[in-house]
């Protein structure tokens, strides 16, 4: 209840309690002892059409993430070995990330959160480093991070060819060969990361930066 509405209610209650005769006010603002006061008509304007109902943004479930990441990377998941063998970090952190255990939690909160964003940041750094190392050592036909033949190539045509393939792999977005606008930022990221890398590490750091950027893109986990 606003302060003005509260004030009006109090004034109305006082008038009724005092039994005073209410006086009407005409359009000019002067008191009129009885009689009909003029009615002011206000044009509210045309009716606005109702917009489409909004749809809330959701994120993938933990289970969907666990299935999607290896598909995108060609089999690489976030695993760590602390001395007891490989540990699936996503599975280990699933309860913390909101996955239901069907004992205390029976449904998963799919609202985007800083916790999921932090997880994807950490996961991308570990997964992308493994992806770069694996693809660099594989023959061209078995790579999944890049599609051009020469791993050490930083030629614009080669880099953009692989960026288009990654857009399709991560986001199911097919970009025409002559359309450079959707990959302009990623191409700039690759060139800057490659230029700042130690000698001989340019392509490695370039593709590492691209991979992290795409895996932490909200479009990868939100729908």
Notes on the structure:
- The chain has one domain.
- The protein is globular, with a radius of gyration of 31 Å.
- It is 47% helix and 4% strand.
- The protein is built from eight helices and four strands.
- Helix 4 packs antiparallel against helix 7 (202-215) and helix 6 (184-196) crosses helix 7 (202-215).
- The protein has 223 residues and is mainly alpha-helical.
- Strands 1-2 form a two-stranded antiparallel sheet. It has a two-stranded antiparallel sheet with strand order 3-4.
Rounded to the nearest angstrom, the distance between the terminal CA atoms is 38 Å
Number of domains: 1
Helix content: 40-55%
Tell me, what's the shape?
Answer: globular
Number of helices: 8
Q: Let me know the largest β-sheet.
A: 2 strands, antiparallel
Structural class: mainly alpha
Radius of gyration: 31 Å
| Integer average pLDDT | 83
Please report which band the strand proportion falls in: under 5%, 5-15%, 15-25%, 25-35%, 35-45% or over 45%.
under 5%
The main sheet orders its strands as 1-2
> What is the chain-wise order of helices and strands?
HEEHEEHHHHHH
Contiguous low-pLDDT stretches (5 residues minimum) are 1-15, 17-32
